[in-house]
Amino acid sequence: MPKKSSSAPVKPLVDIALDGYRWTDLQNPTFAALDQLKRRHPSFQETDLRDCLPPFQRPKLIERDDYLFAVLLFPVYDRDTGIIKSTEIDFFVGRDFAVTSHAPELKIVADAASRAGRDAGFRSERLAGSPGRLLDMLLHDLVAYCFPMLTHLSADIDAIEAGLFKDADDGVIREILRVKTNIANFRKIMQGHSAVLRKLLERAPRFFEPGSLAGNYRDLADHLNEIWDALENYKDAIDALHESHISLVTYRTSRTSERLAALALVILPTTLMATIFSMRAENVPFLGHGKDFWLMLGVVLTVMFSTAALLKSKKWL
Length: 317
What we know:
- It is a single chain.
- With 317 residues, the chain is an alpha+beta fold.
- The longest helix has 61 residues, at 217-277.
- Helix 6 runs antiparallel to helix 7 and helix 7 (170-190) packs antiparallel against helix 10 (217-277).
- It is rod-shaped, with a radius of gyration of 35 Å.
- The model is unreliable at 1-10 (pLDDT under 50).
- 58% of the residues lie in helices and 14% in strands.
- A six-stranded mixed β-sheet has the order 1-2-6-5-4-3.
- The protein has two domains: 14-250, Beta Polymerase, domain 2 (2-Layer Sandwich); 255-313, no CATH class.
- The protein contains eleven helices and six strands.
């Protein structure tokens, strides 16, 4: 077996006998569980079993002599960080068996396996016949699982847009960058699905009857296209908001610089006047006069207010 380290606790394989095949679900794969899986299916190649362990692989489909091996990624939302991350599900599918291996975050798959183990009606209505029915159900459920995250992304973008012109502090840019990261991760996760699904339908008849998977291919493809189109729109929207935020911050910085420059221009004449009157030269106006302080103060204030009035008339203040 592969020599990767894993600290995850060993969980037993869940075996479900279905009409026409057997489904084995492995949640949070470990070395021990994969060794057990290898003993049950000696034809499984070591490289495929190694791909079930972290780090996550790219989406792909490989045709072996006795089975198809597929890797797909799906998004999961981390509520603690607010970031969308990827998680992997692996499929080993043959004539009379289907094996799924996935992380605990994909509760949809684990819940389906749990229900199939206890609900005979669910097994006969949704899963009986061939592994193609299991793939059809799981893929539809996993793709449908993406839509609430799309709705959440849309709400995040709307919230940023609503508050963009009210507040331009660091919190806004952090929220923009968080949403941009989520959209980029989501796009990276979903970009390989259509190609893998197309290859799966092309090569499935050699191993099992595609059944409803082939019949519902168009629905799956439409859902994937809808997700991709939404992500494209969200990417354009958040990029536009990012640019607007940068423009707004630049404008506010420019206005602040203008006010500071205008303030310096108001103070400059007073500084100049003070420097002139402080010179030790003979015949300096007002010096020695009984009211020389008040006269000099009046000159300084007159220059200040005249400069301020001029700047105000030019709308520089």
